[in-house]
Amino acid sequence: MQSKPLRIGTRGSALALAQAQETRARLMAAHGIDEDAFEIVVIKTSGDQIQDRPLSEVGGKGLFTKEIEEALLDGRIDLAVHSSKDMPTVLPEGLALTAFLPREDVRDAFISHKAKTLMDLPQNAVVGSSSLRRQAMIKRLRPDIEVVMYRGNVQTRLKKLAEGQVDATLLAYAGLKRLGLGDVVTSLLETDDFLPAVGQGAICIESREKDARTLELLAAIHDQETQVRLDAERAFLAVLDGSCRTPIGGLALVEGDRMTFKGTILKPDGSVVHDIAREGLAADALTLGRDAGEALKAIAGPNFLAS
Q1: Which of 148, 184, 213, 264 sits at a 20 to 30 Å CA gap from 161?
Q2: What is the pLDDT of residue 65?
Q3: What is the pLDDT of residue 56?
Q4: What is the rounded CA–CA span in Å between residue 50 and residue 15?
Q5: Which strand ranges, in their side-by-side order, compose the sheet holding 38-42?
Q6: How far is CA 255 from the centre of its chain?
Q7: What is the mean pLDDT of residues 213-220?
Q8: CA nearest to 184, candidates 111, 108, 107, 115
Q9: What are the boundaries of each domain within the chain?
């Protein structure tokens, strides 16, 4: 191993740190190297600093990656560990997603002290969520529910729930599991009713395209199936996603050499929804995702994404 530590850039939340530590542990195991060969560098992002309004109003997904990518480009870190669902579909020139870790459970978790499931909540219950996708899908299933903006890290959201600020909340099951908080889940929302965000449950690693040393280290921990699934999902998102103002869900599954893909777009109030399903060869993941996006765009019409 090189004498200089490999610097891993990450946001500072407990979940982001858990993901960086998992990446470090996998690199240590794959290469037989010690923990002191790594340095975890915490970088505060715009998305972490803005807590008083929805991110869709102030710039969307890139707010969780911009400062970290700047550190990669100017050489302050060697790789960045992200939640794939936070990644914009267009990356800065010279950077690439160069590894994916094996994907966790993609489902959304329902958490409440008042009901077993979303459908069991009392009439006009209040649910906290900062995700436009979750807000729209909740309203689609339960138009009576009031959904309120709910920012903060996992622990903050659970604290607000315990204090009774809301009747329930929804969080990614993968993140709860990575934090050792799987036991707080009241029930899980199956993907047939509640498609996850594109990339949900997948940790991705971003690095400089020409950094041969880092690329070689990352190759040993890369999970090819996760990449293929994310190729389809991100291609789908790229066609549809001008910003994160439109509620979008997408999920690719691989079995053998075959892939199935489901995608959805909704009005923010859940009143209109358009779904798409595609099947094909996993080797054609990019084309499959792109075609699904184009087909959904045609079904919804030009004004749907703009509104």
Answers
A1: 264
A2: 87
A3: 53
A4: 18
A5: 38-42, 6-10, 79-83, 203-208, 95-100
A6: 22
A7: 97
A8: 111
A9: 6-101+202-222, 108-189, 234-306
Q: pLDDT band for position 53 (50/70/90)? A: low
The 3 state secondary structure assigned to the chain is CCCCCEEEEECCCHHHHHHHHHHHHHHHHHHCCCHHHEEEEECCCHHHHCCCCCHHHCCHHHHHCHHHHHHHHCCCCCEEEEEHHHCCCCCCCCEEEEEECCCCCCCEEEEECCCCCHHHCCCCCEEECCCHHHHHHHHHHCCCCEEECCCCCHHHHHHHHHCCCCCEEEEEHHHHHHCCCHHHCCEEECCCCCCCCCCCCCEEEEEECCCHHHHHHHHCCCCHHHHHHHHHHHHHHHHHCCCCCCCEEEEEEEECCEEEEEEEEECCCCCCEEEEEEEEEHHHHHHHHHHHHHHHHHHHCHHHHHC
CATH number of the 234-306 domain: 3.30.160.40
The one-letter amino acid code at 84 reads S
Domains 6-101+202-222 and 108-189 share a fold: yes
Q: Can you tell me the distance from the alpha carbon of 208 to that of 4, in angstroms, rounded to the nearest whole number?
A: 17
CATH code of 6-101+202-222, in short, is 3.40.190.10
Band of the pLDDT at 149, cuts 50, 70, 90?
confident
* Per-residue pLDDT tens digits for 13-50: 999 999 999 999 999 999 999 999 999 999 987 665 55
CATH of domain 108-189: 3.40.190.10
User: To the nearest whole percent, how much of the chain has pLDDT over 90?
Assistant: 82
Catalytic residues: 86
